[in-house]
């Protein structure tokens, strides 16, 4: 890559890393765990590495320190820090190692010692080397390959990076989590390690030839940084892809639940909402998991508040309409869950209509407060015995069924039945 292209690519990756790091920090505040801490630190370190590795940042750091090539030291140590954290993460994810805490502790200790010793050697070698030659942010490896101390510096760096990435790749291949989303993310994570190893593959021959005075492969060495950049992007996906997918699903579910919330919370009693922000929580991009959890609770509270106004007629009308539509050409067979959701949606819409009609009647008579619910035993809503872990999916089905033709037809039938009953009672 050219310097201008490197500036753009590296700074974009740095911004992506810092954004993800901020997102992970928010998650860390809610759920502090060692794994999430390592991931957050990794993204912060990666963002700093790419900001310093960009030619603009590289030259700026050189001007500040008075050593034009100084940025190479923090960049390379930062790279090792990032991939050492990723390697340690895969150990913590390994269920077999977690079953043997002593083995896990020993392996983490050994590799941690390696990842501490390598930068120490690199610092000594780098600071002792003669760095008075020409400065090129993209060709440091080959420009200074003739210096024995820089050879030690690069050998330790590339050997440690190669061992870390290959061991991480091997461990990712062995892990087989039950969650398919996590499995896909882990597979991407392993692929990223191969791309980063591609940086080593490109750099080693270029450095060896340059040390011998032949710079024919300098461009190949520069190409290695492209592999490193691709690996960093795939790593970002591997560490955050599953979380981004979950965030998108939660955002989608919050929006999908909005009509049901409007019906049973805003349309029943606004005091059921936890705060004034509840009505617009579907527009918020942060704290999505909490907002979704809050939305489900508010809807369930609203449904319980409606129970005195629930009638058995709408649910029965839904089942009757479904039976009547069987055998027709345009009828779509409904699953038991879909039929239950339609019955619940019809019962809720009818209950809200009855409550609002009672409020209007009470207001017309000059009565204040809550209207008197109908006499008789309360009717349970379909699906009230759903386990808590399945409530979100049940409510999503109910929200989707609110405007279904089957529900609309059933409510029309109920209105006709009630009108006929009122006429007969009036006679």
UniProtKB/TrEMBL annotation:
Residues 246-402 form the DUF6545 domain. Keywords: Membrane, Transmembrane, Transmembrane helix. The keyword Ribosomal protein does not apply. InterPro entries: DUF6545 (IPR046675), MAB_1171c-like (IPR050039). Residues 361-393 are annotated as: Disordered. The chain crosses the membrane at residues 6-29, 36-58, 70-89, 110-129, 149-169, 189-213, 225-248. Coiled coil: none annotated. The keyword Membrane applies. Pfam families: DUF6545 (PF20182). This is DUF6545 domain-containing protein.
């Amino acid at each position: 890559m050219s310097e201008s292209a490197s500036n753009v690519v590296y700074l974009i990756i740095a911004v992506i890393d810092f954004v993800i790091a901020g997102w992970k920090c928010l998650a860390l505040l809610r759920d502090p765990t060692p794994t999430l801490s390592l991931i957050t630190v990794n993204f912060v370190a990666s963002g700093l590495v790419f900001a310093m590795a960009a030619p603009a940042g590289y030259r700026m750091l050189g001007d500040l320190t008075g050593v034009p090539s100084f940025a190479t030291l923090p960049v390379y140590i930062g790279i090792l820090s990032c991939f050492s954290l990723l390697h340690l993460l895969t150990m913590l994810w390994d269920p077999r190692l977690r079953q043997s805490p002593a083995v896990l502790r020993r392996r983490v200790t050994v590799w941690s010692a390696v990842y501490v010793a390598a930068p120490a050697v690199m610092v000594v070698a780098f600071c002792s080397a003669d760095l008075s030659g020409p400065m090129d942010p993209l060709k440091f490896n080959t420009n200074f390959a003739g210096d024995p101390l820089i050879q030690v510096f690069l050998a330790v760096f590339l050997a440690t990076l190669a061992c870390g990435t290959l061991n991480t790749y091997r461990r990712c291949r062995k892990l087989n989590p039950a969650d398919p989303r996590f499995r896909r993310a882990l597979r991407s994570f392993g692929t990223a390690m191969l791309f980063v190893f591609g940086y080593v593959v490109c750099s080693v021959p270029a450095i060896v030839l340059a040390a011998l005075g032949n710079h024919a492969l300098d461009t190949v060495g520069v190409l290695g940084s492209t592999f490193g950049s691709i690996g960093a992007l795939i790593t970002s996906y591997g560490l955050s892809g599953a979380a981004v997918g979950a965030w998108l699903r939660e955002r989608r579910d919050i929006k999908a639940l909005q009509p049901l919330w409007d019906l049973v919370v805003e349309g029943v009693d606004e005091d059921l909402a936890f705060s004034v922000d509840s009505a617009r929580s579907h527009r918020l991009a942060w704290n999505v998991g909490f907002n979704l959890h809050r939305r489900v609770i508010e809807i369930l509270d609203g449904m319980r508040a409606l129970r005195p106004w629930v009638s058995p007629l709408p649910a029965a009308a839904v089942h009757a309409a479904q039976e009547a539509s069987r055998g027709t050409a345009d009828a779509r067979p409904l699953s038991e869950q879909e039929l239950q959701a339609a019955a619940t949606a019809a019962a809720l819409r009818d209950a809200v209509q009855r409550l609002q009609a009672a409020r209007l009647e009470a207001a017309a008579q000059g009565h204040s407060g809550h209207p008197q619910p109908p006499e008789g035993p309360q009717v349970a809503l379909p699906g009230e015995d759903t386990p808590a872990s399945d409530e979100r999916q049940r409510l999503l089905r109910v929200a989707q069924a609110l405007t279904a033709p089957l529900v609309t037809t059933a409510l029309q039938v109920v209105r006709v039945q009630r009108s006929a009953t009122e006429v007969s009672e009036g006679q």
